[in-house]
Structure prediction request, 302 residues.
Amino acid sequence: MFHLFTHAFFKALLFLGSGSVIHSFKDEQDINLMGGVWKKLPYTYALMIIGTLALTGFPFLSGFYSKDAIIEFAYLRGNSVGMYAAYVGIFTAFLTSIYSWRLIFKTFHGSYNNSNVKIESMHESPPVMLIPLVILSIGAIFAGMVFKDLFIGHSNSYAFWSSSIKFLEPLSTEHPPTWFLFLTPVLVVLSIPLSFYLFIKNKSVVDEIVRINKPLYIFLQKKWYFDELYDYIFIRPSKKIGYFLWKQIDGSVIDKFGPDGISKIIKNFSIRAVKFQSGYIYQYAFVMLLGFSLLLTLLILY
Prediction:
């Protein structure tokens, strides 16, 4: 819950910061068509740097307190599951840092890659977009430091959560070894120059990794083919059922014998009835004569 709380600040900051960049790029959303605009968007750039640092768990920002607390408590479980969870958490934190800085470097650094929007036309977003980013950046910096004792402190957390969370046992007062405490922050810091090297300085390394692992790369790029699988299992059958109900049930039965059928009968009757209205007086007189003759005949007979 503490990480969810701090996460709200820096993740919202990054999402709205991305919106600021997209606005400046005239709605372009592909980071491969950006680059080299950090001087053109200095405020957005600085605020997204803050969000990225917090997201990756850079020391003393909000993500550092909440993310490292999860890893440390997993380590302090002292069993194989806890150790496994802790090291998986460290590894995923490292990967998160790499792809987060990849976003920053490909968007704001390197060469400008957009042929549709001239770099001279790039401009910073208006205050109405930047002010919310500034407010969120304050939370991204200080939320972890200010609220850590309230959420996970040894004394305040029990009073804060009360009966909404059941504590099976008291929170641990132990501390992991010093080398473990430094492991995640060191990896997070090292990921910054590593990302710069991989995605700006020497892109051939990434290209070679992609070439060697082409099937895996395509599989991951296609998001495990989840969209295609979802489309095959749910979307296509649903569309076929919907098409059948539309054409065979709704069109051929309900509409045919319902509103369409009734309106067709009325229309045909109206077309035939119109022919009686010729506009010639002698025809109206003839019809009146026929009607009078019929009425007179009935009166004589009955």
The chain has a mean pLDDT of 87. Residues 232-301 form one domain. The CA atoms of residues 104 and 132 lie 20 Å apart. The two ends are 96 Å apart (CA to CA).
